[in-house]
Structures are given as structure tokens and as C-alpha cells.
Design a protein that fits this description.
The protein is α/β, with parallel strands linked by helices. It has a single domain, classed as CBS-domain (Roll), CATH 3.10.580. It is built from 5 helices and 7 strands, in the order αβαββαββαββα. The protein has a 4-stranded mixed β-sheet with strand order 1-2-3-4. A 3-stranded mixed β-sheet has the order 5-6-7. Strand 1, helix 2 and strand 2 form a beta-alpha-beta unit.
């Protein structure tokens, strides 16, 4: 399964965003109210400027909640992303090898979604459970 199919079937394409000139305090409020671990930072035109996560806040912004999000975010030039055609297993490898928890999903340079390591682990678990059930049924089948 590719990550685009996962977004279409399970998660959807809604991406929670914040502006780079908003305060860390506002970012925390948004993360809590939306119950997510990261927000995509965009400009007024909706262009990707960066990503800010709970980790960024803990490491760089917790001591001054009046900092701008741009002071603590990972800038777009350093963001690791995946194309929507990427296989979900390859996405897991990207998350693991780069030790990140959130991965923007792109389609021809446009942001189309955001997946977390939890999303990917849950999807891989469902795939494995389905495959195990199919193998079990094959083994015990009378044909």
C-alpha cells in the first residue's frame, strides 16, 4: 500500500497548520486542541515553510512561549517528506532512520497530508493481521 492510498482510505488529507509569526504559546494551544503532535508551518499563500512538533517546543521553545514559531520550527529546507506514491514500508523506514515522528506527504511539490509514526505502525499492524488471517485460512482450508 502506498501512503497516498492510506490517506485516502484512513486518515484523510486534513493538515493542521500554523503561521510562522504565531507564538509558541498559540502553537501549544493548537496542538492540544487538535490532539496532534505536529503542525505544518505555512505562509499566507499556504506554502510550506516548515514543521513544528512537540519535540521542537520541548527542546527550543519551552522557556519562552512568546517566541515566534519560526524560531523553533524545522525549516522547509530541512524537512524530510515522502511522495504520496511511496510505499508505507518505505515511509516507516524513513521515519525510523531519520528518527522523526511526523512526515509530510507531497504530490508534485504540494502538501497533501501528514502521517505520524503511530499512523504507519497501526496501518502496518492491520496489514500484517490481515495477511496472517489469510495464511491461516489457506492452511486450514480443505481445498
Amino acid at each position: 500500500m502506498n501512503v497516498g492510498t492510506y490517506l485516502d482510505k484512513k486518515k484523510g488529507h486534513e493538515v493542521y497548520t500554523i503561521r510562522e509569526n504565531q507564538k509558541v504559546r498559540e502553537c501549544i494551544d493548537s496542538l492540544n486542541s487538535k490532539k496532534v503532535g505536529a503542525l505544518v508551518v505555512v505562509d499566507a499563500a499556504g506554502n510550506l515553510k516548515g514543521i513544528v512538533s512537540e519535540r521542537d517546543i520541548l527542546r527550543k521553545g519551552f522557556t519562552n512561549l512568546d517566541k515566534n514559531v519560526s524560531d523553533i520550527m524545522t525549516p522547509a529546507s530541512k524537512i524530510i517528506s515522502a511522495e504520496k506514491t511511496a510505499n508505507i514500508i518505505d515511509v516507516m523506514k524513513q521515519l525510523d532512520s531519520n528518527k522523526i515522528r511526523h512526515l509530510p506527504v507531497m504530490d508534485e511539490g504540494k502538501l497533501v497530508g501528514l502521517v505520524s509514526i503511530g499512523d504507519v505502525v497501526n496501518e502496518l499492524l492491520q496489514i500484517n493481521l490481515f495477511e496472517n488471517e489469510q495464511l491461516k485460512n489457506y492452511i486450514i482450508s480443505p481445498y
